[in-house]
Amino acid sequence: MDPIIWEREPPELRSPVLVASFSGWNDAASAAGTALGAIGASLETELVARIDPEEFFDFQANRPTIEISGGTMENVEWPDNLIVAAKAEGAERDLLLISGTEPSTRWRTFCTSVLDVAEACGVESVVTFGSLIADVAHTRPVPITGLATDDAMIEQLGFEDVAYEGPTGILGIFHAACRERGLTAASLWAAVPHYAAAVPNPKAGLALLRRLEGMIGIAVEASDLEQAAVAFEHQVTEAVAANPEIKEMVEQLEEQQDEVAGFSQEDVPSGDTIAREFQRFLRQQND
Length: 287
Known about the structure:
- By secondary structure, the protein is of the alpha/beta class.
- Helices cover 38% and strands 24% of the residues.
- It folds into two domains: 4-221, PAC-like subunit (Rossmann fold, 3-Layer(aba) Sandwich); 230-284, no CATH class.
């Protein structure tokens, strides 16, 4: 059975870029999903296709939800991945957006299905959003790291030469699938503070969005996200200031980022230590 459910004929798009994010392991503090949601809210969008969840999800891990009204079952919402076309007025290119949940199984088949839709819509390049927990301060600019399929794009984006061996999420597999198909692809990752990772981080989402704008030349109206980012930083600053131990830890992280070389690992508390202390502090608050 073909897992692609087309909602319409593949649209004719202008030099389209596929932008993707998936909730779950790849989306700490919901920053990646927030960035993609802001794009969809700003531009004119139309549903193109969806990926049938039946073959890709463990429904005990990602349970469907139901809606009951007046004692009657009204609707069942399944975990899914939607692909929409987004057009920016006055821009020279369009976007194809996919957002949803990281699948539980058959990742290679899933990635193939998404890229089949992308190629049918004439996609020329791919950008993925991710976010990760890191030793960073909420008061400082959000670090954006990533990888790309070619050296020219790495240089254009200003990525550092990093090396990594270890587990990956669906974005790592998706990026590899793009490379195998010869599609130019970049993966942008925002670093979010570990001591505030339990709540959505609009500041990190905004940083991802602004980096994308510089890459593809499409401006996204995101005043609501900008206001949310300011409010987020203010609220976290107030919470941190109320606890001297947390405040001292955050100040050390600020100095570490400001000085680049920073403190030694012995001087900076671990992420787990800060997270436990911050959670303990929040439990003590009435509001």
